[in-house]
Amino acid sequence: MQSLVYTQPNEVQLQERAEPTMADGEVLLRIEAAGICGSDMHAYHGHDPRRKPGLVLGHEFAATVLQSATPLWHVGQRVTGNPLITCGRCDYCLQGRDNLCVNRTMVGMSRPGAFAQQMSIPGQCLIALPDTLDTVAGALTEPAATALHAINLSMRALARPLPECRVLVIGGGAIGMLSALLLKNYGVAQLQVAEVNALRRASLERHASCVPFDPREHAVPEGEFEFVIDAVGSVVTRQSAIAAVAPGGVVMHIGLQDWASEIDMRKLTLAEITLLGTYTYSMADLRATVAALARGAFGDLSWVERRSLADGAQAFDDLHQGRTASAKVVLEPTH
């Protein structure tokens, strides 16, 4: 089968690989669409030691069941899924916080991912897609659930209802775009997005009806926002997020571009800032996101770019070079 393989830093190649095998309780999927995530780009750049050359990346997918070794699913069902494979036994799984499972593995990291014509996965990870939901929209479930989980988690810490807040999103990539779209759906009227890519700023203005600006030309306002989302996670954006948040406000850190870095702990303390981290989503979040996508909570998704799997190497390079306006490129294998 055709597979897009990470071969070395800044290189992926279309290769022929053997079809995957199924263990008990697993299903074999025909991949219909798979999105390129920021973490795939992180691996592509050679910055993720967990993802090693020779790996098929990809964990955002919509698919059709080809074979099933579990009574949970039957041939022909349309599905998306949770790429986190959890144990179901640890305290976090039993609490419904399965994203924190201490024994988790992941497709596209510890086993072959979705940038291929086929992929196997445990049946417990799958979620049915409604017939009304487009396949490409279904492939956005995973990143959209990341935004939903982060925003819902933040709302527990905000002093005032979210629609009343002045909100800043730093980064207009997929998570930033999806966060902006969901924030608008939740009723946020005062929303700004900081994004350095001019093509993405134009896309944000058109599709998310927000006020994008280039933080290199216009400094991020200090102390003005009750809620700040850092969807980049670089040294600079972490510092900007802490500077931008108002006293008593909330900073949600999603992005993972850089590893450890310093932040202004003095302001965090004296201004009673709540700093939250988030990791992916729970199965409940994924199911809620499928429903949200189906009712149009994330808009019409016309900003998403569709390409063939065979064009995957070019797609990675275009994202690397900043040549595409779209915050999300979805690859579609031919069958």
Q: Spell the H/E element sequence.
A: EEEHEEEEHEEEHHEHEHEEHEHEHEHE
As a whole number of angstroms, the C-alpha radius of gyration is: 19 Å
Given as residue ranges, the uncertain stretches (5+ residues, pLDDT < 50) are none
DSSP summary, beta strand count = 18
Strand-helix topology:
Blueprint lengths: L1 E7 L2 E6 L9 E10 L2 H7 L10 E2 L3 E9 L9 E4 L2 E2 L5 H4 L10 E2 L11 E5 L3 E3 L6 H5 L1 H15 L10 E5 L3 H12 L4 E5 L3 H10 L3 E3 L11 E6 L4 H10 E9 L11 H6 L3 E4 L5 H12 L10 E4 L3 H10 L7 E4 L3
Parallel strand pairs: 11-12, 11-14, 12-13, 14-15, 15-16, 17-18
Antiparallel strand pairs: 1-2, 1-4, 3-5, 3-9, 3-18, 5-6, 6-10, 7-8
Helix pairs in contact: 4-5, 4-9
